[in-house]
Design a protein that fits this description.
By secondary structure, the chain is an alpha/beta fold. The protein contains ten helices and 18 strands. Strand 10 and strand 11 form a beta hairpin. The longest helix is centred in the middle third of the chain and has 18 residues. This is Acetyl xylan esterase.
Amino acid sequence: MNRLFKSLLVLSASLATTLSSIAADAPIMATPDHPNGVYREGEPIHWQVKTNAPAGTGADAAAPLSYVVKKGGLTPIAKGTIPLDHGMGTLTATLPEAGTMLVEIKGGAIKGFAGAVVAPEKLKAGVACPDDFDAFWNGKLAELDKIPANPALTPAASDKEGVQYEKVTLDNINGTHVQGQIARPTAGGRFPAILQLQYAGVYPLQKSWVTEKAAKGWLALNILAHDLPIDEPADFYQKQNAGPLKNYTMIGNESRETSYFLHMLLGDHRAAEYLASRPDWDGKTLVVIGTSQGGIQSFFTAAYFPKVSAVMVEVPAGCDPGANAAGRAFGWPYWGATKSPKVMETSRYYDACHFAARTKCALLVGVGLIDTTSPAGAVYAAFNSAQGPKEIVPMPLADHKTHHQEFAARREQWLKALLHGQPAPIAEAK
């Protein structure tokens, strides 16, 4: 390792004690000594590492683990081994500047990650916002305004007593449609509203995603990201995913005018407009929630629809596609992997960081510190851009799909407060 790397990062390996906080079924888990995984510049970071290797993987409780440290989840800056005692060891690192760390840990055929973030409040988007960003999006919204929503509601059986359920279709740009489902309590007149936007993929909607919220008192709308019927058999969506919607994130991505995300995002705006136009909305509370792909959709909706009162996004995707310019890893939808100047120029108009910078409502964000789909540095860049009251929940053990319990708990606390007309219960940063 050269002197520059030594100056950036100091690593050591030593024995550790029992890790009661680590899930017993994980092959390799690493827990930082700060419960939230957040550190100051130059502050030592200590991870306690535990293996629970399945038989036949080539890793055991005595064999050392190997590791590679990647600054920003992108640049390898150190590597070594972690001696184990009864399957446990310690890894220590120090980063003298703002950024993120992602440590890849291997033992035989098993693999795990360690993560941390240093001075996260200093992280910014890798690429500047285009000068005509607002002009472009306001122009597209003006085009949408010329198209009547023409809401078509189809009543259907509800799976919960006291809840009214309907399918809904709205007209969108270029002859496309917004297709979704809506539910509300049968008793009462006006309700707080919630719009749920979907994670990536091609699949049907589950009725419970709106009826369970309606049973609690919400006017709940949930839409597909695609112009497809919402409740066809599984093979219908499999054929769409293998056919016309295969790699849909790359469709039209060489131009801001043709990107597949254009009608998706405008459809989100239309759905929020529709909710706010209904006589059974209370006129005050309109919450937008989304996970992964639902994150970029939620940021866009809040950016250009001022009636949105709160946004809650879990491991939001689409943040900072130009992260490489800041020395960090980019995430889904992986525009940067194309290495195409045209695609990267398009991505500047679809960067969730730039949408977040136009939000002023209350914001709750969950970020996984070992998430490689929505890298932590990109998520923090979007969070830091937001202009309104905000709270972020760093989850040191969370990848894109697991160990999100802390965020889920905070989201429920927020939803309970907002449902009853209370302000968002924003916690101070720790």
